[in-house]
Structure formats: structure tokens, C-alpha cells
Amino acid sequence: MTGRALVVTWTIVLTSCGVPERGDTLAGRSRPLLDHDWALPGDLGLAPSSFEAPDAVAALHTAPNGLRAYILSDTADPIVQVTAALPLGRALERGGETAASEVLARQLAGRVRRDLRGDGPSRVQTGQEVDFARITVTVPAEDWRRALGAVVAALRDPGLDPTVVAAFRTGSGYASPTTGLGSTAFRPAVELERLVAGYPVAPPDPGLRVSPEAVHRIARRALHPGAAVLGVGGGVAREAVERALVELTAGWAPVAPLEPPERQLFPDPRLPQEPVLAIDQDGATSWLAIGHPLPPVDDAAEPSLAVLEEVLNIRINIATREIRGLTNRALLRLPRSADGSGLLHVRTGSRPESVAPLVHYIMEELSRIRRPGGSPTEDEMEQAKGGLVTSAWQASLDGARQASLTYAVETVRYGSLEHLQRWPKAVRAVTAEQVRAAAERYILPDRMTAVLIGPLDAIRAARHPRWPFSLEEVSPELRRPVTGGD
Amino acid sequence: MRPRTALLLSVILVATVGLAGGPEPAPPQSNVRVSQTTLFGRVAQELVLDNGFRIVLVEDQRVPRVAASLWYRVGALQEGYGDHGATHFLEHAIHQGTTTVGVTDPARDLRLWKEIYETEQELLAERNAQRNLLRERNVFFDEGDWPTTPRLDSLRQRLYALEDEQSEVRVFWEEYNWYRRHGGIMRHTDPVPANTGNELMRIEVDLPKESLELFFRLEADRMVNAVPRGWEAQRFTVLEQFFLFNRPETGRFNEALNGITGIVHPIRLHPGGHLRDHAYWNRASMLRIYDDYIVPNNATLVLVGATSVDEVQPLAIEYFGRVPRRPEPPARMDVEAEPPPGGSVRLDWMEPLDPRVVVRYRIPGVGHPDRPVFDVIARLLSGPDGLLAAQRGVPRVAWQAGASRNGSPNRLTLQAGAERDEDLPALERAALAAVDDLRRGLVDETTLDRVRRRLRFERELLFSDRGDLASDLGEFAVGDDWRTLGTFLEQREAASPQDVRRAAQRYLVPWNRVIATTRRNPEPPARENLTSAPESAAGTGGTP
Known about the structure:
The complex is a heterodimer. By secondary structure, chain A is an alpha+beta fold. Chain A is built from 16 helices and eleven strands. In chain A, strands 1-2-6-3-5-4 form a six-stranded mixed sheet, sandwiched between helices. In chain A, strands 7-11-8-10-9 form a five-stranded mixed sheet, sandwiched between helices. In chain A, helix 3 crosses helix 7 (212-222) and helix 9 crosses helix 11 (378-396). By secondary structure, chain B is α+β, with helices and mostly antiparallel strands. Helices cover 42% and strands 15% of the residues of chain B. Chain B has 18 helices and 13 strands. In chain B, strands 1, 2, 3, 4, 5, 6, 7 and 8 form an eight-stranded mixed sheet that branches. In chain B, a hairpin with a 6-residue loop joins strand 11 (400-403) and strand 12. At the A-B interface, helix 1, strand 5, helix 9 and helix 11 of A face helix 1, helix 3, helix 6, helix 7 and helix 8 of B.
């Protein structure tokens, strides 16, 4: 056969068979595998991200009364978002003020919603952690002044309603105080906070009242023009916002000198005698939280702990979900407070037979990373750093609206943007050994306590067909003494 | 082609392949059709490859990132008996790596896969042979108790052991970790940044623009060379999701409500399947769905962000362009709910739950000219200023109203929780009275204008968020056509009082209605009737 004839024959074959594919077929498949020469993901030679944070220095404006605002204009945006970030949360409450921050946050949001109702579309969102609260209003760009006006008006006068304050009682603590979100899934972590730390790490006990005086006191501190910080982002000119702020803050002078936020002392950690608190509750899914309190974290250790959280989250999920199918998800959470104090815990849920194996494999991963051989691999370090910087940090500054919100919240929480701005470099500098050292210092396998909520009889009777641990067997693992090997 | 000629060509082909040491990798295709449309002042460009793969691109250079949203037109609507929920499971299964990603020893991996597959075939044969022993032919709902036999147990243990062995050559979460390493933001914070519905499967990642090639590399590979490793473990992960969403107190009620609404055909199916389906699933039927539907000519990739046609086109050709076109998927998108509407359906739930009333009507899906006005109707009904809240003589409650956009059929749902069971009749009457107001045309221009402003605001929010816009364009691509999003938004903002009245009179009628209630103290309790007698269980019990 001549060369030309071979080409013609090949052409006929290819035309009749379609684009050639490798002959291999995965058993069970009707479609052949595709033979390709694509580079492996690590060999693609991707350029570093060109993302840059918006200029925070240029964005900062201070009104005549001291109220600060980060104004980030994006004229292409048909939307404007106004955020008020406040030093308001249970970690900042003082004697006699328990739960007053929750009452104030609710009243502020209510005041803003009332002001905006019936006057064009808007969206009001709130958020509260232990050491800050925020109210965010989103409106069409042409309505920006209405939104800014409503937020500033609420800061000047939150419209505290004595009857609402008198009727208030603290709730279960496992529903988000300002959004009403929450479910049984969040309850174990809250009960664990109550068990091992108490208020203010844990929410206050249910059924407490708050005095109007306490709300007024906390309002004087949190709504002080030198304490609150605004973020304005989107389709509005910076100069227009500056002018509006002069008008809106006119006559709003602080009634008292600014007091710097004063955090409550971290309570003494408690180690309950029993390692497992079990609460009987019917349902298909049992909910579990395992953890211990963390005191304030050294600034230098914070990036290492953040990398540790990323690495451990993946490891725990591979051990419990991917390899064993014990749960849909297990979530390791470090405290979200600015000083790092709070509850370190793993939260998960599963069917009864998986509860005991979950405890075992979670504890195994929490212990493994403390050992010399358990240090993160190079790949794990790069993945974690990408997740913290190129993903999460960029997401927090993604566009004028989001960046203005983040700048306002960060300034309230840390006093400046230094923490946010140095974060990428600090994370990039973390070494695997620092992560292991952080694990050794902050993860304490001998001081773990678990809260389990589910059908207890079923949980105690159930044995997983492949990993037939009992709850009694695995409970001691929560207090296993740390040895040299650990 | 005559047999002798075919034989000759085969010989030549085999000889040629042998001499060359194997076929060359599939060459990229070069033909790309590009067109563009304007959506509310934004240019949307469409690229269609020869193999049918479609890309919709909306440029937004404000932030150097791109939202990538890949949609397949597949879901619960395509599933037959025994496969219910299998598409959702497939979504998990195809996130366990490919022939080149997530594996350290591909040859051993494929050998193990073959053994796993054959063992499962044995298991299926055994299960079929023992079917009369194993179950009561759907008389009872033995949730959480899947009967078995010693032979089945043994085969299942073999499967577990083989998958454990396969784990030795796996790199877990590798695709997810490549995304994370390069700045991927996944809407779901687990290794499966995807979800599945009645007629959709989507995979969504937001990436720095410099990392966009990673999405093309990984997702084209996933489209054609996925290896569903760790299948048994994934089955239990999906089962946990099922318990999480479908077996909390309200989950069973919602499942029943969706069933009598006829949300997918035949009635009583939903994307997660049912508990028993988790035992029926098998690799072979799942791979049939994969081979039929996860193909370039059944996919749309939406990109919104800092990229351009010039940047995207070479990537499309290099990656998705190499994946061969397949026969058009056996679409079952046009099925109607059964039984056809013929009377108001009522569900009074017999398990204790917080008191709630739900009133539902079946409505058309996107692409139908009557669909946009139902967004207007939902907003006219809901909120503190809505028609539901305005009804007099009923307890003050927070009413919700919403109109769904995907599935078959879609539905307008009005609902409210009550303080007491005794309040439910009044709330039900209020809901029906509000609907009657719509049918009688009691909607004035001022009220409608308030709703129009709200809808315009929602549209502006949508177009200013690259992730949301990518998702909505994808949703419309699988529901009808991505271009329909523009006309849909235009039409709902232009709806007149007459449009509202006409739609209400046509659709919000008793014969197209479902009313459901839950009570704190229902009578009689039904718990005793939910399980079979212990002596009837054929096997040892426990989930497999």
C-alpha cells in the first residue's frame, strides 16, 4: 500500500469512527476514555494572581465628629452598600450588661428597617460575633443617600423601645441572635461552650432579662462616633458621600469621651468529669461537637493556627467522609474572635452507628498532627495557604462593596487595617514545623469534651458494620494522656 | 461498509496503531461559532464548538477573577425506577478524580476498578435472585433496615476491601485542592462544589483570572475520564445528606408535599431519591447516566468576569474541544406531572410538627410566556405590605410566597407558620382570599409599581454579582435557553395588572391547587404504621 493510500484509508477510518479515542474503556462504561496530552494541574504554569486590595488609605474619610468611613466608589455598579460596624458583642459587655449587645443590635436593625420600609427597595442584613456587630444596607445606587441616612440616624438614635427591652428574654443561644438562623446542628457546640467555658465564650443562659440602663450604657460605647466605622461601597461618588456625611453627622457630638473597647477576661477553662455530655433527642441525625476552650492566642501563632485549621479540616474530612462515609461533613472551627479566644471544636452529624467511629477518627486526626510524623506535607501547606490568601482573603476584598464592609469590620475589631494587610505575607511565611508546634500548643487531646445530641439508646446500641466502636470504647480517647509520642 | 472491506480496514488500523505505539491523542477541534446578545446593556457572547459544547461569556473586568459555572442538562427527571437519586450520587462520584488526577498508580487503579465492577455485578445478580426473600414488595417503609443475606454480606465485604485497596493509590480531594491552591472559591465548602436538581447538575468555582485554565483542564477531564472511586463511602455520604435534608422533622412532610404536587414525574420522586434507593444504586446504571448526559453537547459553561473571547477560545478548543460529541442525550424534559390536575389535593400531615399551612399551585417553567408574571404575583403576596398580610381577621404571621424556576412542574408556594393549631383554618382562608383578590384583579398600579421597583433592584443585584449571574444564566440554559433570562427579567418588570389577573385566573384555581397543613397535635398518630412487624424482616438488618 502506498503512503497516500494509507492516508486515505486512515481518513476513511477516522471519518467513519469519529475522532479517535484510546481503546481503553472503564468497566461499565460505553464511552471510551479520552487519550489526551494535557499537562498535569501542577505543570500548567499558572501565573500568580494579579489581585490587589483596594487602596484603604485613600478610601478612609473622617467626618467632623470623628466618625470614620471607608468609601470605595465603583461607578459601574448599579448598587450601593452601606455598612455600620460596631464594637458590640458579648465579649465587650461589662458587669450587669449581659445580653445587652444582642438587644441593641436587634433594635438598631429594627430601626433601620422601619426607616427604609415603604420607601423603595432595600436589603438589610445583620451579623454579630462575640466582639463586633454589623448592619449592612443594600439599595439601588440612586437611593444611596436614603441608606446612608437610615444607618447614621440609627447610630445617632437607635430608637430604643423600653417595652421591647422589657419583653426581651435571652434565647437558646444556638440560633443566630440577629438573623434567627439556627438548628439542632449548632446546639452541641453551644452546649459545649457552656460546659467548658461559660459566658462570654458561651451565649448567656436562656431566659435572662436585660435592663434598659444596660442597653443605654452599651449603646453609649458602641455607637460613639469614634467607635463605629462605616463602609460605603458601590455606585456612588466619594465626594458625594463625604458631603452627605458632613450633613448627616451635623450636631452629633459625642456625649462622653471615647472609651477603648475593653474585653472581658477569658474565663477559667473547665474540664467536666465526664468526657461526654449526651442529650437524648429523637431524629435520624445525631449531632456532635468535640473540643476545648482556647485562651487568647499569641499574635505570632495566629497565621500558623489558621494554616493548621485548613490542613486539619481536610484531613478530618478525608478520614471520616471520603474513606469511611461516616458523615456528610465534619467542620473544625477555631474561635472567630479577634484575640483568638473561644472554643476550638469539631462539629459533625451522622446516623447512630457512625457516632462512635466519628469520635475515634476525629481524635486520631487531632492527635496525629501534633506528632513529628504528622506535620503537614508541602502540598498541604500550599493548598492551605492558597485557601487562606488567594481564596478567602481575596474574597473578603472582592469589589468595592465587599472591601468597604471588610475594612469597616476589621477596623472595629483590630483598631486598624494592619492585621488584614499583613495577613497574606504572614500566612505565606508559615512553615510546616510552625504548624506542628501550634498544634502541640493549642490542640489538647487530653482535655477534650464532647456534646452529643441524638437518639441515645439507638446510638449506644448501634455498631457500624465496618468500624464497630462503641461510645464507651471511644469516650476515654477524649482524655487520653499526652505522651512523648504525641 | 461491506464485511470484507471492514475487515481489511481493521487490519490496517490495528497494524498502523501497533507500529505507532498507540493512537495519537485526540486533536483539538478548531471550529468555534461566536455570536453575541445584549442583556440589559451587558454583552453576552456565545461560543459553540463543533462538538456542541457551549460557552456563554459576560465580561466584567472590575476584579481580576472569573466565576465559572458549568451546567449539564440532567437530573431526577431522567431517572428511572431503581435509579432515583442516582444523578445526585453521580455528581459526588465524578468528584473523585480522573484517569490522570487523584491517582498515583493509574494502571493498578484501573485493574482494581474492573475487579470492583465485576464484584458488584455478582452482588446485583445475588440480590435479584433473592428479591422475594429480601423485601416485602413495598408494603412497608423499613427505613434504615436494609435486609441482606450471608452471600450479599460477603460480596459487600469484598467490595469494601477492594475499595480500601484502591484507596492506597488515591490522592484524595486532589481536584478540590488544586482549585484551593490557586484561589478557587467554591460555593460549597466541601470537595464537591456542585449540586443536582430535577433537571440540572452544576459545578461552580470562582477563580483568579490567571487560574482559569485550571477549570478547563479539570472539568474537561471530569467530563470524559472520571473514575468513581470510593463509591461505597460516597454512597453513605449521600445517605447522610438524605438524612440531613429529608429526615428532619419537616423533611418527610416536604417530601410528601412535593410528591403530591407532582414536582417530578412520576410523582413522589425528588433529586435525592428515597432511602431505599440508596441501597439500589449501582455503578453500571450510574455510568449509563454519565455516558449519556455528561457530554459536551449537553453542557453549557458560563463565565462571568475578567476574561475575554480571545482568552477563552484557545482554552475551549484545547480542552473541551477534544471531547468527542456523543449522540444527543435521551432527553425526558417534556414530561408532565401525573396524574394530571383534576382537583384540589389536600395533605393533612399526621406526624406532630409546628403548625403551618402551605398553599401551592403548579405554574409553568422558564421559557413559557406565562412564567415571568408569577415572580410579580409572589412579591404581591409576600412581605409586610403584601396581599397575604393585608387579610383581615386572621392572626398576624410572617407569610412567605415564592415561585420556583426549575423542575417540572414549577410551583407558586404560599406558606405561614402559626402559633396554634387552631389558627390554621383562618390562615388557610386568608391565603385563598388573597389569591381570590388576584383573580378579581384587585391590584392597583401603585402596588404593582412597588413590586416593579423591587424586581428591578433584584435584577441589578444579579447583574452586579458575577457568581449569581453565571448561575442564573446556567439555570436558564438548562431550563430553556440562556437568552431567555433577559426576556424573563424584562417581562416580569413590565407586567401589568391585566397580566396578573389573567395568570391568576388561569393557574390559581382549585383544580390546580395543593393545600397542606402540619399540626402540633394531629390525630391520630401514625407512627405505629410506619414499620413492618419484626418477624417479617428477612435479613440481619442495619444499613449495608
